[in-house]
Amino acid sequence: MSRYLFREGVNINNDGNNIIISTPYATRSSPKQQTLCVKDAKEPLKKLLQNLFLDGIESNQTLKTPETLASSTTSLDLELQLQALYKAGLLIHEIEGSHGIAMRLLPINPGLKQQPCPDINNEFKLSRFTSIEPCLEGLDITSPLAPTTLRLQDHRLYPLIQRLVSPCKLASISPLLPEDLRTQYRDIISLFLSSGMVGICNSEHNAEIDQEAIRAGWNKQDLSFHNHTRRHIIDRCQEELLHRNINRPPPPARNQRIILSTVPLPQPKIKKQDADFYQIIRKRQTIRSYNSNPITLEALGNLLWYSVHTREEIICDPALPRSYEGLLRPVASAGGLHSIELYLCIKQCIGIGSGLYHYDSFDHCLGKMSELNNPCQNMLEMAVNTTCRGPQAASISPGQGQQPDVLIVMATRYERNAILHSETGLTYALILKDAGSIYQQLYLVATALGLAPCGLSFGSSELFEQASGIPSKIECSVGEFMIGNPSQGHSSLMTK
What we know:
seven-stranded antiparallel beta sheet, 14 helices, 23 strands
Protein backbone atom coordinates (compact mmCIF):
# COMPACT_ATOMS: atom_id res chain seq x y z
CA MET A 1 0.00 0.00 0.00
CA SER A 2 1.23 3.49 -0.93
CA ARG A 3 0.23 6.28 1.45
CA TYR A 4 0.64 10.02 2.17
CA LEU A 5 0.70 11.66 5.61
CA PHE A 6 1.86 14.94 7.08
CA ARG A 7 5.50 15.13 8.05
CA GLU A 8 6.68 16.19 11.50
CA GLY A 9 6.56 19.93 12.15
CA VAL A 10 3.37 20.68 10.19
CA ASN A 11 0.60 22.43 12.13
CA ILE A 12 -2.87 23.57 11.03
CA ASN A 13 -4.94 26.43 12.43
CA ASN A 14 -8.39 27.64 11.40
CA ASP A 15 -8.96 31.32 10.69
CA GLY A 16 -12.65 31.48 9.90
CA ASN A 17 -13.11 29.73 6.56
CA ASN A 18 -9.39 29.92 5.91
CA ILE A 19 -6.85 27.30 6.99
CA ILE A 20 -3.32 28.36 7.94
CA ILE A 21 -0.73 25.61 7.49
CA SER A 22 2.51 26.21 9.39
CA THR A 23 5.48 24.49 7.76
CA PRO A 24 8.71 23.39 9.46
CA TYR A 25 10.69 25.53 6.99
CA ALA A 26 12.38 28.87 7.59
CA THR A 27 15.23 30.66 5.82
CA ARG A 28 18.74 31.73 6.73
CA SER A 29 17.64 35.36 6.65
CA SER A 30 14.46 34.89 8.68
CA PRO A 31 13.97 32.39 11.51
CA LYS A 32 10.18 32.72 11.21
CA GLN A 33 8.61 29.50 9.99
CA GLN A 34 6.84 29.78 6.65
CA THR A 35 3.07 29.35 6.32
CA LEU A 36 0.55 28.45 3.62
CA CYS A 37 -2.99 29.84 3.52
CA VAL A 38 -5.90 27.89 2.03
CA LYS A 39 -8.79 30.30 1.53
CA ASP A 40 -12.46 29.34 1.79
CA ALA A 41 -11.67 25.72 2.62
CA LYS A 42 -14.60 23.36 2.07
CA GLU A 43 -15.51 20.40 4.23
CA PRO A 44 -13.94 17.72 1.94
CA LEU A 45 -10.60 19.52 2.12
CA LYS A 46 -10.80 19.85 5.90
CA LYS A 47 -11.46 16.11 6.11
CA LEU A 48 -8.51 15.41 3.81
CA LEU A 49 -6.19 17.46 6.01
CA GLN A 50 -7.49 15.71 9.12
CA ASN A 51 -6.84 12.30 7.59
CA LEU A 52 -3.30 13.34 6.62
CA PHE A 53 -2.70 14.13 10.28
CA LEU A 54 -4.10 10.84 11.56
CA ASP A 55 -3.43 7.63 9.62
CA GLY A 56 -2.70 9.20 6.25
CA ILE A 57 -4.50 8.47 2.98
CA GLU A 58 -3.79 6.00 0.25
CA SER A 59 -2.04 7.63 -2.68
CA ASN A 60 -4.84 6.72 -5.08
CA GLN A 61 -7.67 7.65 -2.73
CA THR A 62 -8.53 10.94 -4.44
CA LEU A 63 -8.26 9.43 -7.92
CA LYS A 64 -11.25 7.11 -7.66
CA THR A 65 -13.80 7.60 -10.44
CA PRO A 66 -16.52 9.94 -9.14
CA GLU A 67 -20.20 9.29 -9.73
CA THR A 68 -21.31 12.87 -10.42
CA LEU A 69 -19.88 15.98 -12.03
CA ALA A 70 -19.95 17.77 -8.71
CA SER A 71 -17.97 15.02 -6.99
CA SER A 72 -15.62 14.97 -9.99
CA THR A 73 -14.85 18.63 -9.47
CA THR A 74 -14.35 18.08 -5.73
CA SER A 75 -12.02 15.14 -6.36
CA LEU A 76 -9.94 17.20 -8.80
CA ASP A 77 -9.67 20.04 -6.31
CA LEU A 78 -8.53 17.64 -3.59
CA GLU A 79 -5.97 16.10 -5.92
CA LEU A 80 -4.57 19.54 -6.77
CA GLN A 81 -4.37 20.43 -3.08
CA LEU A 82 -2.63 17.14 -2.36
CA GLN A 83 -0.10 17.80 -5.13
CA ALA A 84 0.50 21.31 -3.75
CA LEU A 85 1.20 19.91 -0.26
CA TYR A 86 3.51 17.31 -1.77
CA LYS A 87 5.45 19.90 -3.79
CA ALA A 88 5.72 22.10 -0.69
CA GLY A 89 7.55 19.29 1.09
CA LEU A 90 4.88 18.73 3.73
CA LEU A 91 3.98 15.11 3.02
CA ILE A 92 5.68 11.83 3.76
CA HIS A 93 5.17 9.25 1.02
CA GLU A 94 5.51 5.68 2.21
CA ILE A 95 5.04 2.14 0.91
CA GLU A 96 3.95 -0.63 3.26
CA GLY A 97 4.27 -4.39 2.95
CA SER A 98 3.40 -7.35 5.13
CA HIS A 99 6.41 -6.59 7.36
CA GLY A 100 5.32 -3.01 7.97
CA ILE A 101 6.64 0.15 6.36
CA ALA A 102 9.11 -0.79 3.63
CA MET A 103 10.32 2.63 2.47
CA ARG A 104 9.57 6.30 3.07
CA LEU A 105 10.23 9.51 1.20
CA LEU A 106 11.01 12.17 3.82
CA PRO A 107 11.09 15.77 2.54
CA ILE A 108 13.99 18.02 3.56
CA ASN A 109 13.09 21.10 1.51
CA PRO A 110 10.18 22.16 -0.68
CA GLY A 111 10.40 21.39 -4.38
CA LEU A 112 9.47 17.71 -4.63
CA LYS A 113 8.34 16.41 -8.02
CA GLN A 114 6.34 13.23 -8.45
CA GLN A 115 7.82 11.00 -11.12
CA PRO A 116 5.81 8.18 -12.72
CA CYS A 117 7.27 4.76 -13.22
CA PRO A 118 9.05 4.64 -16.61
CA ASP A 119 8.02 2.35 -19.45
CA ILE A 120 9.60 -1.04 -19.86
CA ASN A 121 12.25 0.17 -22.33
CA ASN A 122 13.71 2.92 -20.14
CA GLU A 123 16.88 2.33 -18.15
CA PHE A 124 17.41 4.02 -14.80
CA LYS A 125 20.15 4.05 -12.17
CA LEU A 126 21.21 5.46 -8.82
CA SER A 127 22.57 9.01 -8.85
CA ARG A 128 26.36 9.11 -8.51
CA PHE A 129 25.96 11.87 -5.90
CA THR A 130 24.00 9.79 -3.38
CA SER A 131 25.21 9.02 0.13
CA ILE A 132 23.96 6.14 2.29
CA GLU A 133 23.93 6.25 6.09
CA PRO A 134 22.51 3.81 8.63
CA CYS A 135 19.80 4.99 11.00
CA LEU A 136 17.66 3.30 13.66
CA GLU A 137 14.92 2.48 11.14
CA GLY A 138 17.19 1.27 8.32
CA LEU A 139 19.22 3.07 5.66
CA ASP A 140 18.93 6.75 4.70
CA ILE A 141 19.80 7.67 1.11
CA THR A 142 20.43 11.37 0.42
CA SER A 143 21.76 13.50 -2.42
CA PRO A 144 22.74 17.19 -2.60
CA LEU A 145 20.67 17.32 -5.80
CA ALA A 146 17.46 16.24 -4.07
CA PRO A 147 15.22 17.89 -1.44
CA THR A 148 14.46 14.57 0.24
CA THR A 149 15.75 11.62 2.20
CA LEU A 150 14.78 8.16 0.99
CA ARG A 151 14.63 5.76 3.91
CA LEU A 152 14.68 1.99 3.30
CA GLN A 153 13.15 0.48 6.42
CA ASP A 154 12.73 -3.08 5.16
CA HIS A 155 16.16 -4.71 4.94
CA ARG A 156 14.85 -6.94 2.17
CA LEU A 157 15.04 -3.91 -0.15
CA TYR A 158 18.77 -3.40 0.40
CA PRO A 159 19.77 -5.50 -2.67
CA LEU A 160 18.01 -2.88 -4.82
CA ILE A 161 20.78 -0.39 -4.02
CA GLN A 162 23.48 -2.62 -5.43
CA ARG A 163 21.41 -3.36 -8.53
CA LEU A 164 20.67 0.32 -9.18
CA VAL A 165 24.37 1.23 -9.27
CA SER A 166 24.31 0.12 -12.91
CA PRO A 167 21.63 0.94 -15.51
CA CYS A 168 18.71 -1.44 -15.24
CA LYS A 169 15.16 -1.90 -16.52
CA LEU A 170 11.89 -2.73 -14.80
CA ALA A 171 12.18 -6.42 -15.64
CA SER A 172 15.34 -6.73 -13.54
CA ILE A 173 13.83 -5.05 -10.48
CA SER A 174 10.73 -7.13 -9.80
CA PRO A 175 12.61 -10.43 -9.12
CA LEU A 176 14.69 -8.67 -6.43
CA LEU A 177 11.61 -7.66 -4.43
CA PRO A 178 10.13 -9.81 -1.67
CA GLU A 179 6.91 -11.52 -2.68
CA ASP A 180 4.63 -9.26 -0.62
CA LEU A 181 6.04 -6.14 -2.32
CA ARG A 182 6.34 -7.50 -5.85
CA THR A 183 2.92 -6.23 -6.92
CA GLN A 184 3.99 -2.70 -5.90
CA TYR A 185 7.17 -2.64 -7.98
CA ARG A 186 5.93 0.29 -10.09
CA ASP A 187 5.17 2.34 -6.96
CA ILE A 188 8.60 1.48 -5.55
CA ILE A 189 10.42 2.61 -8.69
CA SER A 190 8.23 5.73 -8.84
CA LEU A 191 9.23 6.56 -5.25
CA PHE A 192 12.92 6.07 -6.07
CA LEU A 193 12.57 8.45 -9.02
CA SER A 194 10.49 11.01 -7.08
CA SER A 195 13.08 11.06 -4.30
CA GLY A 196 15.77 12.23 -6.73
CA MET A 197 18.03 9.32 -5.78
CA VAL A 198 17.39 7.50 -9.06
CA GLY A 199 17.11 8.94 -12.55
CA ILE A 200 16.34 7.83 -16.09
CA CYS A 201 19.54 7.11 -18.04
CA ASN A 202 20.58 9.23 -21.01
CA SER A 203 22.57 8.14 -24.06
CA GLU A 204 25.79 8.33 -22.00
CA HIS A 205 24.34 5.89 -19.42
CA ASN A 206 24.32 8.59 -16.73
CA ALA A 207 21.24 9.45 -14.71
CA GLU A 208 19.73 12.53 -16.35
CA ILE A 209 19.34 14.20 -12.96
CA ASP A 210 23.17 14.15 -12.64
CA GLN A 211 24.01 15.51 -16.07
CA GLU A 212 24.36 19.23 -15.25
CA ALA A 213 26.53 18.55 -12.21
CA ILE A 214 28.68 16.07 -14.17
CA ARG A 215 29.14 18.54 -17.03
CA ALA A 216 30.19 21.24 -14.55
CA GLY A 217 32.78 18.89 -13.02
CA TRP A 218 31.31 18.55 -9.51
CA ASN A 219 32.30 15.63 -7.31
CA LYS A 220 30.07 14.30 -4.55
CA GLN A 221 32.09 15.70 -1.67
CA ASP A 222 32.28 19.26 -3.01
CA LEU A 223 28.63 19.33 -4.05
CA SER A 224 27.48 18.04 -0.66
CA PHE A 225 29.64 20.58 1.16
CA HIS A 226 28.36 23.41 -1.05
CA ASN A 227 24.73 22.39 -0.65
CA HIS A 228 25.05 21.98 3.11
CA THR A 229 26.69 25.34 3.75
CA ARG A 230 24.86 27.47 1.17
CA ARG A 231 21.27 26.28 1.43
CA HIS A 232 18.67 29.00 1.88
CA ILE A 233 15.82 26.93 3.31
CA ILE A 234 16.26 25.58 6.84
CA ASP A 235 14.32 22.65 8.30
CA ARG A 236 13.62 23.58 11.92
CA CYS A 237 12.74 20.01 12.89
CA GLN A 238 16.04 18.72 11.50
CA GLU A 239 17.97 21.47 13.30
CA GLU A 240 16.48 20.39 16.61
CA LEU A 241 17.96 16.92 16.04
CA LEU A 242 21.48 18.26 15.46
CA HIS A 243 24.20 17.70 18.01
CA ARG A 244 24.11 20.28 20.77
CA ASN A 245 27.30 21.57 22.25
CA ILE A 246 28.37 20.40 25.67
CA ASN A 247 27.60 23.05 28.24
CA ARG A 248 31.08 24.47 28.68
CA PRO A 249 32.66 27.87 28.22
CA PRO A 250 34.15 28.73 24.84
CA PRO A 251 37.90 28.07 24.56
CA PRO A 252 40.07 31.14 25.24
CA ALA A 253 41.45 33.22 22.41
CA ARG A 254 45.02 32.67 23.63
CA ASN A 255 46.21 29.08 23.60
CA GLN A 256 49.17 27.51 25.37
CA ARG A 257 51.82 25.52 23.46
CA ILE A 258 55.09 23.79 24.24
CA ILE A 259 57.72 26.34 23.22
CA LEU A 260 61.45 25.59 23.37
CA SER A 261 62.59 29.20 23.07
CA THR A 262 61.21 32.60 22.13
CA VAL A 263 62.52 35.00 19.50
CA PRO A 264 61.13 38.56 19.75
CA LEU A 265 60.32 40.19 16.43
CA PRO A 266 61.32 43.79 15.67
CA GLN A 267 58.56 46.34 15.94
CA PRO A 268 57.31 47.30 12.47
CA LYS A 269 59.31 50.10 10.92
CA ILE A 270 58.63 51.22 7.36
CA LYS A 271 60.34 54.47 6.51
CA LYS A 272 58.87 55.17 3.11
CA GLN A 273 56.83 53.59 0.38
CA ASP A 274 56.75 54.44 -3.28
CA ALA A 275 53.34 52.85 -3.80
CA ASP A 276 49.86 53.60 -2.56
CA PHE A 277 47.19 50.99 -1.87
CA TYR A 278 45.91 50.85 -5.45
CA GLN A 279 49.42 50.38 -6.83
CA ILE A 280 49.83 47.44 -4.46
CA ILE A 281 46.61 45.86 -5.73
CA ARG A 282 47.72 46.27 -9.35
CA LYS A 283 51.19 44.92 -8.57
CA ARG A 284 50.06 41.89 -6.58
CA GLN A 285 51.17 38.66 -8.17
CA THR A 286 52.40 35.17 -7.33
CA ILE A 287 56.20 34.86 -7.39
CA ARG A 288 57.87 31.47 -7.07
CA SER A 289 61.48 32.32 -7.95
CA TYR A 290 63.83 33.70 -5.29
CA ASN A 291 67.23 35.34 -5.21
CA SER A 292 70.16 34.06 -3.18
CA ASN A 293 69.68 36.55 -0.34
CA PRO A 294 67.39 35.10 2.36
CA ILE A 295 64.51 37.07 3.81
CA THR A 296 65.36 39.07 6.95
CA LEU A 297 63.79 38.79 10.38
CA GLU A 298 62.72 42.43 10.08
CA ALA A 299 60.85 41.77 6.83
CA LEU A 300 59.26 38.63 8.30
CA GLY A 301 58.19 40.57 11.38
CA ASN A 302 56.62 43.30 9.23
CA LEU A 303 54.74 40.69 7.20
CA LEU A 304 53.27 39.04 10.30
CA TRP A 305 52.50 42.31 12.07
CA TYR A 306 50.54 43.85 9.23
CA SER A 307 48.81 40.56 8.39
CA VAL A 308 47.65 38.88 11.61
CA HIS A 309 48.98 40.54 14.76
CA THR A 310 46.41 40.99 17.53
CA ARG A 311 45.55 44.64 18.01
CA GLU A 312 43.04 44.13 20.80
CA GLU A 313 41.28 41.45 22.81
CA ILE A 314 37.53 41.99 23.15
CA ILE A 315 34.44 40.30 24.58
CA CYS A 316 31.91 39.44 21.88
CA ASP A 317 28.16 39.26 22.60
CA PRO A 318 28.71 40.17 26.27
CA ALA A 319 24.98 40.27 27.02
CA LEU A 320 24.31 36.76 25.66
CA PRO A 321 24.92 33.33 27.23
CA ARG A 322 27.29 32.53 24.36
CA SER A 323 29.65 35.39 25.29
CA TYR A 324 33.19 34.63 24.13
CA GLU A 325 36.66 36.11 23.75
CA GLY A 326 37.22 37.75 20.38
CA LEU A 327 40.18 39.41 18.70
CA LEU A 328 40.78 42.39 16.47
CA ARG A 329 43.41 41.84 13.79
CA PRO A 330 44.24 43.56 10.50
CA VAL A 331 42.48 40.71 8.68
CA ALA A 332 38.78 39.78 8.83
CA SER A 333 37.34 36.77 10.68
CA ALA A 334 33.74 35.64 11.14
CA GLY A 335 32.56 36.77 14.56
CA GLY A 336 36.05 37.99 15.47
CA LEU A 337 36.98 34.40 16.41
CA HIS A 338 40.33 34.28 14.60
CA SER A 339 40.74 30.56 15.18
CA ILE A 340 43.58 30.30 12.62
CA GLU A 341 47.13 30.29 13.97
CA LEU A 342 50.26 30.71 11.85
CA TYR A 343 53.19 28.28 12.02
CA LEU A 344 56.41 29.04 10.17
CA CYS A 345 58.62 26.39 8.68
CA ILE A 346 61.79 28.48 8.34
CA LYS A 347 64.43 27.13 5.98
CA GLN A 348 66.60 30.25 6.05
CA CYS A 349 66.10 33.73 7.46
CA ILE A 350 68.71 36.32 8.45
CA GLY A 351 68.40 36.87 12.19
CA ILE A 352 66.86 33.54 13.21
CA GLY A 353 67.81 29.87 12.97
CA SER A 354 65.95 27.32 10.87
CA GLY A 355 63.15 25.30 12.44
CA LEU A 356 59.40 25.19 13.07
CA TYR A 357 58.00 28.25 14.88
CA HIS A 358 54.62 29.45 16.10
CA TYR A 359 53.74 33.11 15.65
CA ASP A 360 52.46 34.65 18.89
CA SER A 361 50.16 37.36 17.55
CA PHE A 362 49.68 38.83 21.03
CA ASP A 363 53.32 39.44 21.94
CA HIS A 364 54.61 39.63 18.33
CA CYS A 365 57.25 36.97 18.72
CA LEU A 366 58.16 33.54 17.36
CA GLY A 367 58.16 30.50 19.60
CA LYS A 368 60.43 27.70 18.45
CA MET A 369 58.76 24.30 18.54
CA SER A 370 61.37 22.10 16.87
CA GLU A 371 64.36 22.01 14.58
CA LEU A 372 63.83 21.68 10.84
CA ASN A 373 62.84 18.02 11.17
CA ASN A 374 62.00 15.55 8.40
CA PRO A 375 58.28 16.41 8.29
CA CYS A 376 59.24 20.08 7.91
CA GLN A 377 61.59 19.19 5.07
CA ASN A 378 58.81 17.17 3.47
CA MET A 379 56.42 20.11 3.76
CA LEU A 380 58.94 22.38 2.03
CA GLU A 381 59.42 19.84 -0.75
CA MET A 382 55.68 19.33 -1.13
CA ALA A 383 55.18 23.10 -1.38
CA VAL A 384 57.44 23.18 -4.43
CA ASN A 385 56.00 20.08 -6.06
CA THR A 386 52.33 21.01 -5.69
CA THR A 387 52.37 24.70 -6.61
CA CYS A 388 50.93 25.62 -10.00
CA ARG A 389 53.61 26.46 -12.54
CA GLY A 390 52.98 29.96 -13.91
CA PRO A 391 55.29 32.11 -16.03
CA GLN A 392 58.44 32.72 -13.99
CA ALA A 393 62.08 33.47 -14.63
CA ALA A 394 63.43 31.85 -17.78
CA SER A 395 65.85 29.80 -15.70
CA ILE A 396 63.01 28.15 -13.79
CA SER A 397 61.27 25.28 -15.54
CA PRO A 398 58.42 23.05 -14.32
CA GLY A 399 59.67 20.49 -11.83
CA GLN A 400 62.69 22.64 -10.89
CA GLY A 401 61.05 25.09 -8.51
CA GLN A 402 62.85 26.56 -5.52
CA GLN A 403 61.99 25.91 -1.92
CA PRO A 404 60.88 29.11 -0.18
CA ASP A 405 62.82 30.74 2.62
CA VAL A 406 59.72 30.40 4.80
CA LEU A 407 56.63 28.22 4.49
CA ILE A 408 53.69 29.61 6.48
CA VAL A 409 51.15 27.00 7.59
CA MET A 410 47.66 28.12 8.65
CA ALA A 411 46.18 25.82 11.28
CA THR A 412 42.75 26.24 12.82
CA ARG A 413 41.63 25.58 16.36
CA TYR A 414 38.37 24.02 15.18
CA GLU A 415 36.74 24.13 18.60
CA ARG A 416 36.85 27.94 18.61
CA ASN A 417 34.39 28.00 15.71
CA ALA A 418 32.47 24.84 16.53
CA ILE A 419 31.41 26.11 19.96
CA LEU A 420 29.34 28.76 18.15
CA HIS A 421 28.52 27.29 14.75
CA SER A 422 28.15 23.51 15.07
CA GLU A 423 24.36 23.84 15.21
CA THR A 424 24.27 25.70 11.89
CA GLY A 425 26.67 23.35 10.11
CA LEU A 426 28.79 26.31 8.97
CA THR A 427 31.88 25.76 11.11
CA TYR A 428 34.32 24.52 8.47
CA ALA A 429 32.94 26.78 5.74
CA LEU A 430 33.62 29.85 7.90
CA ILE A 431 37.12 28.62 8.71
CA LEU A 432 37.92 28.33 5.00
CA LYS A 433 36.62 31.86 4.43
CA ASP A 434 38.91 33.10 7.21
CA ALA A 435 41.81 31.29 5.53
CA GLY A 436 40.98 33.02 2.25
CA SER A 437 41.09 36.40 3.99
CA ILE A 438 44.54 35.61 5.38
CA TYR A 439 45.77 34.51 1.95
CA GLN A 440 44.85 37.86 0.43
CA GLN A 441 46.23 39.83 3.38
CA LEU A 442 49.56 38.02 3.12
CA TYR A 443 49.64 38.67 -0.63
CA LEU A 444 49.01 42.42 -0.29
CA VAL A 445 51.37 42.96 2.64
CA ALA A 446 54.12 40.91 0.99
CA THR A 447 53.69 42.92 -2.21
CA ALA A 448 53.96 46.18 -0.26
CA LEU A 449 57.13 44.89 1.42
CA GLY A 450 58.70 43.82 -1.86
CA LEU A 451 58.66 40.11 -0.98
CA ALA A 452 57.85 37.12 -3.19
CA PRO A 453 54.46 35.68 -2.14
CA CYS A 454 52.84 32.44 -3.28
CA GLY A 455 49.68 30.89 -1.91
CA LEU A 456 49.43 27.12 -2.21
CA SER A 457 46.36 25.12 -3.15
CA PHE A 458 47.38 21.93 -1.38
CA GLY A 459 49.02 20.85 1.86
CA SER A 460 49.20 17.89 4.22
CA SER A 461 47.53 17.87 7.61
CA GLU A 462 49.36 14.63 8.33
CA LEU A 463 52.80 16.22 7.80
CA PHE A 464 51.85 19.24 9.91
CA GLU A 465 50.75 16.96 12.74
CA GLN A 466 54.06 15.09 12.55
CA ALA A 467 56.07 18.32 12.44
CA SER A 468 54.26 20.13 15.25
CA GLY A 469 53.22 17.24 17.48
CA ILE A 470 49.72 18.78 17.72
CA PRO A 471 46.84 16.31 17.11
CA SER A 472 45.06 17.21 13.88
CA LYS A 473 41.66 17.16 15.61
CA ILE A 474 42.90 19.91 17.94
CA GLU A 475 44.58 22.07 15.29
CA CYS A 476 44.36 21.08 11.63
CA SER A 477 46.18 22.79 8.79
CA VAL A 478 43.89 24.53 6.28
CA GLY A 479 46.32 26.54 4.13
CA GLU A 480 49.96 27.12 3.17
CA PHE A 481 51.86 30.17 1.88
CA MET A 482 55.43 30.57 0.59
CA ILE A 483 57.61 33.63 1.20
CA GLY A 484 61.09 34.65 0.03
CA ASN A 485 62.97 37.50 -1.64
CA PRO A 486 62.08 37.83 -5.34
CA SER A 487 64.60 37.02 -8.04
CA GLN A 488 65.81 39.66 -10.44
CA GLY A 489 63.18 40.79 -12.88
CA HIS A 490 60.49 41.26 -10.21
CA SER A 491 60.45 44.93 -9.25
CA SER A 492 59.97 45.99 -5.64
CA LEU A 493 57.51 48.57 -4.39
CA MET A 494 59.77 49.45 -1.45
CA THR A 495 62.47 52.07 -1.65
CA LYS A 496 65.93 50.84 -0.91
